[in-house]
Predict the structure of HTH gntR-type domain-containing protein.
Amino acid sequence: MNKPMANKGPQSARTGGKDFGEVRSGTIRSVAVEMSDRIYSGRYKNGQRLPAERHLSGELHVSRTTLRQSMDLLENAGMIVRRAGSGTFVSYTPQVEDTPKRQAADTAEISIDILDTAEQTSPLELNVVRSVVEPEIVRLAVINMSARDMAKLGAIIDRMEKVTTSAADFSTCDEDFHLCLAEGTHNQLLATIYRMITHVRRHSTWAETREKVLSPNRIEDYKKKHRSLYQAIRNRDIETAVEYMKLHIIEVQRDLISV
């Protein structure tokens, strides 16, 4: 039987003896490294569906929240993919020349960087990055999105329309909308970069800011902005879509400053 992950020390040979800081973050990293080890060793093979979240959290002796945050790190590293309604699947095949130890160390470094960045990035810093990346994502999405991509984006808009007061529910729809755009570029590197941005947006420090900004009135206003952006994308109107995205990010930044 596996030992509880929380009992692992904050330092590990697989991470070069780095100081992981506070215990909660260390646990997230330990779980990510444990899961990456299982993938590298072949216990979980490419294309295989991972065990259910309830089973894994019990086996590793961590909460589901901790497990999800660890899985976020693996997803950002390109090792797993989450498919709505189907589960989580391995999306990585170790190269023959790569040893599990070296691979685990590499992934641990990626995990550390992403988690530390999420903890240290301010809302305004994140918005600056979004202002650089997202207009170009929209431009490429308008050009490259397939009919299936458009249908997926439309379904997210429909789901967003049903949100009236819940800041958390609206934030989930908002994340899904922007991630769908990134994936619609059909540029894997750009989509991976945006998943990293999404991980930073999911950090607990954002919860308080989100609750302050997303009043029912602001939710309605943001819904209208997303609907207009969606229409421009569906019409393949590049310049209008890019302009809507730029205005949206400026408005988000204005709201953050006002908090």
User: Anything to note?
Assistant: Residues 121-258 form a domain with the Four Helix Bundle (Hemerythrin (Met), subunit A) fold (CATH 1.20.120.530). Residues 1-24 have pLDDT under 50 and may be disordered. The first helix runs from residue 23 to 40.
